[in-house]
Amino acid sequence: MFGETLDVGIGNCLDKFGREIDLGFPCGPKIEDLAKKGTQYLGLPYSIKGMDLAFSGLLTAAENYVRHGKRIEDVCYSLQETTFAMLTEVTERAMAHTEKQEVLLGGGVASNTRLRDMVQTMARDRGAHFFVPSKDVCVDNGAMIAWLGFLMYESGLRMSLDESLINQRFRTDMVEVTWRD
Amino acid sequence: MTKKILYRGAEAEIRLSEYMGKTVVLKQRVKKAYRIKEIDRHLIAYRTKEEAKLIAEARSYGVSVPLLYDVDLTKGAITMEYLAGSRVKDILNGLEESERKRICFKIGESIARLHNHDIIHGDITTSNMIFLHDRIHLIDFGLGCKNSELEAKGVDLHVLMEAFESTHSKYAHCFDYVIEGYSKKFQGDSSAVVKKIEEIVRRGRYR
């Protein structure tokens, strides 16, 4: 695994911000709509540690902007631009480090058009290929989990229904990789 | 002069160039079309400045780093010494275990020398180390900073631990040798740093 959050995930970060300003669930699409009407960039902490990210300081700063009466559209715009630039940057750094020519975006926030645009632009400028599932299967990491299941199945792994359980503590790096050297 | 691209990283292009008759490396940070100009300008100018400052300071404390020749903040360019060695990333997996251990120990010593003066590299991976003349040279301080907190040192080493787990997954145990070297040279309480790394691992998402 190459790079992860050191505190909250990006989806969680957007949800927390949305709850703080009473956007109602789901917050992501609402923040995305508000961000489209943003005109002024408000500086936010940009926190990258190697391949890892930290969002909690930025979240607090964004909430403070709202509290101090900044336009909500501008805060949403700045929040998206900063967090997505961070995500795109670490993705590009991971691609450079591992010398990969393909990137597949996944997860709920992969529904966000601005994030898609940014990662696609990054990939294009590197001469790499960009892939993203359609929006309806991004929700709740649907496509990402299904893709992993496909790889596991292809490598010969079988599991009965009785063994299939929900484990919320299961981490990405706990998967036993049997489909590559 | 025309410059040959040595390496195209995520944020900069590294070219071989010439400076006062010497073969040098030109590190040019490039504009990123994916981010807005406010963020782009800030990051390029800020990181170029920080990197030059930290490289100069690290050198003054006896850490092997490239010699700086020129810095241009508006262009986001740094001209520095060309280190004609090997990236540790490329050689580590192919070494004998005893040699791998020796190199990892040296890596730990170099990091400790930085941390003794509160210099945080910010991106310690084996891609950012050049092995030359039996020394580990640290490069790419673009995500670095000065920070005296234990947390910053822990995060700095945690980045390398993850690099070992991903890029050198068969030799992930070698991170222990890094810590041995680090503990030998670090002037503070290295066991507190090790505890901090464990804490960082524990508090990650979903743990």
How do the strands and helices of this protein lay out in sequence?
The complex is a heterodimer of chains A (181) and B (207).
Chain A: H1 10-20, H2 27-36, E1 48-49, E2 52-53, H3 56-67, H4 72-98, E3 102-104, H5 113-126, E4 129-131, H6 142-154
Parallel strand pairs in A: 3-4
Antiparallel strand pairs in A: 1-2
Helix pairs in contact in A: 1-2, 1-3, 2-4, 3-4, 4-5
Chain B: E1 4-8, E2 12-19, E3 22-29, H1 37-60, E4 68-72, E5 77-81, E6 86-87, H2 88-91, H3 97-115, E7 119-120, E8 129-132, E9 135-138, E10 145-146, H4 150-167, H5 175-185, H6 190-203
Helix pairs in contact in B: 3-5, 4-6
Describe what you observe in this structure.
The complex is a heterodimer of chains A (181) and B (207). Chain A has six helices and four strands. Chain A has helices spanning 10-20, 27-36, 56-67, 72-98, 113-126, 142-154; strands spanning 48-49, 52-53, 102-104, 129-131. In chain B, strands 1-2-3-5-4 form a five-stranded antiparallel beta sheet, with helices on one face. A three-stranded antiparallel beta sheet of chain B has the order 6-8-9. The termini of chain B are far apart. In chain B, helix 3 (97-115) packs across helix 5 (175-185) and helix 4 (150-167) crosses helix 6. Chain B has two domains: 4-81, Phosphorylase Kinase, domain 1 (2-Layer Sandwich), CATH 3.30.200; 86-203, Transferase(Phosphotransferase), domain 1 (Orthogonal Bundle), CATH 1.10.510. Classes of the chains: A mainly alpha (181), B alpha+beta (207). The interface between A and B is large, with 40 and 35 residues.
In short:
The complex is a heterodimer of chains A (about 180) and B (about 210). Chain A contains six helices and four strands, in the order H-H-E-E-H-H-E-H-E-H.
Number of beta-strand segments of chain A: 4
Portion in beta strands of chain A: 5-15%
Query: Can you tell me the residue ranges of chain A where pLDDT is under 50 for at least 5 consecutive residues?
Result: none
What is the succession of H and E elements of chain B?
Answer: EEEHEEEHHEEEEHHH
What order do the helices and strands of chain A follow?
HHEEHHEHEH
Count of helices of chain B? 6
Global shape of chain B: globular
Low-confidence stretches of chain B: none
